[in-house]
Design a protein that fits this description.
The protein is mainly α. The chain has a domain of 66 residues. Helix content is 75%, strand content 0%. It contains three helices and no strands. The longest helix is centred in the middle third of the chain and has 50 residues. The protein is elongated.
Length: 102
């Protein structure tokens, strides 16, 4: 069962997204506003373009966040492994090891 796409209005709070949409929509309207094209067709196409842009932006943003989170987990793991463990001489907690390897 495929899920219906729903626009996430929270991304409108992100300046980068708003700027990208403004720029892309200006370009879209310049290229697609011609006498032969109906307003309904322009509107439907604009919605499709917005969907693609929103999806691409969200995927990229989430990937960057995931990479940043993994990097921070790696730094925490290495800090614990090389500094805290060296001075305290305790085994690495199971949860930290699992988070590092997942």
């Amino acid at each position: 069962k495929s899920r219906r796409w729903i626009f996430n209005p929270q991304i409108l709070k992100e300046k980068d997204f708003v700027e990208k949409i403004k720029k892309e929509m200006e370009l879209f309207l310049k290229k697609n506003t011609v006498e032969q094209t109906s307003l309904q067709n322009i509107w439907d196409t604009a919605k499709a373009v917005l969907r693609v842009l929103a999806t691409a932006y969200t995927v990229k943003r989430n990937k960057e966040r995931w990479q940043n989170q993994n990097k921070l987990q790696e730094e925490i793991y290495l800090f614990y492994l090389f500094y805290l463990n060296k001075f305290i001489c305790r085994p690495i907690p199971k949860g930290l090891w699992v988070a590092h390897n997942s």
